[in-house]
Amino acid sequence: MGATPAVETLRAAKGDGETCPIVQQTLVRGDSVSARHGDRFYSAVYPRGRGKGIMAKVLVTGGAGFIGSNLAARLLSEGHDLTIFDNLSRSGCHANIEWLRATYGAESFRLVRADLTDFAALAGAAEGAQRIYHLAGQVAVTTSVRNPRQDFEDNALGTFNALEAARLHGDNPIFIFASTNKVYGGMEEVRIEARPTCYAYADLPLGIPESKALDFHSPYGCSKGAGDQYTRDYARIYGLRTVVMRQSCIYGYRQFGIEDQGWVAWFIIAALKRRPITIFGDGKQVRDILFVDDLLDAYDAAVAHIDQVAGEVYNIGGGPENTLSIWAEFGPLLEELMGRPIPVAYADWRPGDQRVYVSDIRKAAAELGWRPRTPVRAGITKLFDWINGNQSLFAHL
Question: What does the pLDDT read at residue 88?
Answer without folding.
Answer: 97
